[in-house]
Structures are given as structure tokens and as C-alpha cells.
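Anyone able to model this chain together with 3UK?
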Amino acid sequence: MNQATDSSARASAHTDHFARDHLPPADLWPELRFDLPELQYPPRLNCVRELLNGAADLEQRTAIVCEQGSWTYAGLRERVDRIAHVLRGPMGLEAGNRVLLRGANNPMMAACILAVIKCGCIAVPTMPLLRARELAAIAGKSEINAVLCAEALRAELEAVDPPLPQAVRERTLWFGGQDCPLEALMAAQPASFEAVDTAADDVCLISFTSGTTGVPKGTMHFHRDVMAVCDCFPRSVLRSRADDVFIGTPPLAFTFGLGGLLLFPLRVGAAAVLLEKLTPETLLAAIEKYRATVCFTAPTFYRQMAQMAQVAGGHDLASLRATVSAGEALPAATREAWRRATGLEMIDGIGATELLHIFISAAGDQVRRGATGKPVPGYQACVLDHDGKPAGPGVIGRLAVKGPTGCRYLADARQRDYVLDGWNLTGDAYEMDADGYFYYRSRIDDMIISAGYNIAGPEVEDALLRHPAVAECGVIGRADEERGQIVEAHVVLKPDAAPSPQLAAQLQEFVKQQIAPYKYPRSIRFVKALPRTETGKLQRFKLRSENP
Ligand code: 3UK
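re: yes, here you go
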């Protein structure tokens, strides 16, 4: 539907109406709710103006830290403004144009994202590890007009075949290296840029899902959505403060990282540490070095860090006050290992690219064993039964969520699968208890059905992770003539353990002691590593297709 003629479009600052023209039709949108006072945004809103034009006393505070040094809020704003001038001046972009962004987590990548949004364009961030074919799909789908790409990631972009359109190649700038064109152009621009006065519901970000199968889906987010995610989870669950120092691993091109490592710190005048290529080892060292107070990463990272913190015992992690786990389920065993190693109660939170950030979570003494938590204030959630009706406590069904943000795919028929009766359906099987806590069971498509029993892989994984020899594991259903499927565990052992049939039998017995025996893994495969996405998610489909 072309909405360019309705009243909200008239208020749009976009002269290029691509985003508005490719939003799903209104009847396929989820219901949007703005139930809290802090979620009442004015009709004109540029989220980057809001985030960077804070009180004057912010100017000399540290905004971004990296290995080479740090930028104050004033310094960050100046860079953002110079880049915005480059985009609207020499590059000749107009409001509503899409700019593909490519870079690791570093201050220039952050400044580029913010600049694109501040000047009324639409950021299309891409993760560093994406290959030429994936980049081509994203560029084509969002009909990009320009590219800002880190020099270090140039090769894969130039490998896109057939090449990006001539007009886009002419508007491609490299940054972050010796004598890079973006930095050269920036130096010649004015140091201050007036934010484009966008509508609160102008699209500012198209984030592609890290989905493991099929064509990538672009999720469209408004200026208002960016403010809303800053004003929900960080405010009520994380309780971020100006003296916080945020650190972590998720790419800025993944909304988990964009929020946790850039938007949330800026919203409260805090500092963000941006580091590239972190490993569990180097993240531990960086927490100590930068005196980080808030850490965002995936469960598998926390598990490995817990092991190291205990073994090495060396790192001083006393600065940490909150650690946030998201991207996939946090096994209770990992929560406990982390608590033993650090004394910290993990903040688990489920988020989704479609909803921009975390919508169910709990912190501190609100944490309940095995549960993700409760809907973050501003969001509502329920579990839908077979008939699509909200189910009561104790029923496993489809998780449904609504709040100030929600799914709007860029021209994608799968919009109909994600939204039902105004609810966002995340594709997760969840169960609620009588007190309104939500318990993750599995991805709906990953539920294992063996001899008529429904078995959730993560429950078996949690049991295995409690065994002292197990470093990591992934449990899937393997096709089986007799039972339909059998439970199969792929196990990575700790360095001091060796694979053997005896150990496999021990692990099976160990699982049977903890959970209903029919859930035990009939097949155990010892592997060196598990296949994961750049966002830390286990790629179960790869486990299923390996060595059938
Ligand atoms: C799974 C979880 C159990 C779940 C994300 C925080 O992961 C994010 O976005 P994606 O679009 O994936 C969404 C799906 O990932 N998941 C995420 N967190 C949890 N499952 N417990 C969790 N704590 O299947 C969900 O549907 O890649 C996470 C913030 C922003 C994000 N985009």
C-alpha cells in the first residue's frame, strides 16, 4: 500500500518514501501500546538528537572508549555531525535514503550509524562476518543508496557479484584506515549539524534478522522505537546510570549490541567500551582494565568466562554490577556457574530483532529459577494455546508479545506469520507460571518429538552442562524410524576430559538422574566445537545435517 498520501506521511521528513511505501499494510501490524508515561513521545522526534544533545554538563563526559583512547560526548557529537554533513553534502543523499553500514565494534562505526540517523537517512547495519552473497541480498532488499564501510572489511563488499549498482559504488566511502576518504571528507566539513526534524514514526533503522534459514528479513524501526527500547528494559530492569561503563560482545549491527553497547549508555550519559574480536579471555581482561559495570553478551560467553574466572581466579571483576545475557536461552546451570564465579545474579532477557530489544526479563531478587522473567514494564506477554487463545499457567504454547515496538518487515510475506491478532509471535515455545513468570522451553520448530513425548532440547542441555566434564553442548532431534526422533547430544568436553564410550554412558546416566528418563540423549556425539552464528546462537540445523 502506498501510504505517501495519508496524514502521517505528510508529516514525514523523508523526501525518499521507500521505507513508508514498503511498510506492511496497517492491518498486518502488531498492536502498538504506549502504556507508560515515559513512552509518550512528541510527533517530531529525531532519536540521535535526543541521545546526543543532552544537558551541557554531558559535553566533557566520556561517551565511547576503545583501545586507542576515548571520545567525550562533545567529541562524539562533532564526529557524528561532520559525517552527517558528508552524507548530505558531498555524497548528495536525501532524507529517507538507505545507507549500508559495515564495520566492527569501534567508535567510527558507532558514529557512522548515529550520523546516518541524525541526517534523516536510514541505517542498514551489517555484521562483519557476512559474506558477499548475504550482503548482496541485504543491499538489494533495502535498495541501498550509499555505503559506509570499514577499510578492513572492504574485500567482502567488493566481492559482491554482480556488483552493486554504479550509483551506489559512487557513493561508497571507506573509513577507519590510513588516509580513508570518509575521514578526509569529514575534516573539510562544519563541526555542527542541525538534526533533520524527522517524524517520530519515520523509519531510521532497517535491521536484518540473523535468522539461520531462508532469505534474510529486514525489520523496520522508527525514531520512536529507538527511544522506547531505551526507556523500557534499561530503565526498569537494568536501571542504567550515568556512571555506568558498558562493555560486551554483540555486534553493533545486531540490535542486542546496538542497544546494549551504544543506545542505552548514550540515553543516560554513560560510557560505552567498544572492542573488536573479543574472546571470553579478552573480555574478562577488558572488564578489569576498563572497570566495566555492565556487560552484555551471550550465554555461551558467560559459561566460558565462568570457567576461566574460576580456573585462573586472576581477574578483578569487582567493578561489574550487572551482567545481561540474551540471544539464546540461559541454562540454569550457566546462571549458577556465573554466580559461583562472580557473585552476580545474571539478568537474562529475551529480545528479538523484530521488537528491537529485550521484552521479558528479571534482575536481582526478582529472578526466579529457570525463568526468563516477567514482561518488561511497557510490554505485555502471554502464551497462546493450539487455538491461538491465551492459555493459563502450566501450558506450553506460543509466546506472544506486544508493546511500544513490534514487527514490521520490509516487504515480506512472512509478516503474516509473525503477527496474530495484534500479538507478535516470536517463534518460541514458552510456559507461564501462576505468578506470571515466563519459562523458555525451545524454539517451536526445534521441539523434539520422540515416541510421542515432547522434549525441549535446552532442558537436556541444562542437565548435561551440570556434568563436570562438559564445556558446552547442543541437543537436537535426530530422525529415527522407530521413535520418529531420538534425542541426540553434541558435546564439547572440557580440556581435561577425553571422549570415550564409558563417558557417553556416564553422561546418559547423569541426565536420567536429573530429569525424566525418557528425555535422556540416546545418541551422544563428542565434537570439538559447536556451530554458532555471529550473534552467539547455536545453529541446530547444522547439527541436524552433520553426519546423518
Ligand atoms: C531467542 C532467547 C531464550 C529467541 C535479541 C536481545 O536474540 C535477539 O534477536 P534475534 O532476532 O533472535 C530472537 C530469538 O532469539 N532468544 C533471544 N534471547 C533469548 N531465547 N532466552 C533468551 N534470553 O528464540 C528469540 O525469539 O537474533 C536479543 C536483544 C535484541 C535482540 N535482537
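The two ends are 46 Å apart (CA to CA).
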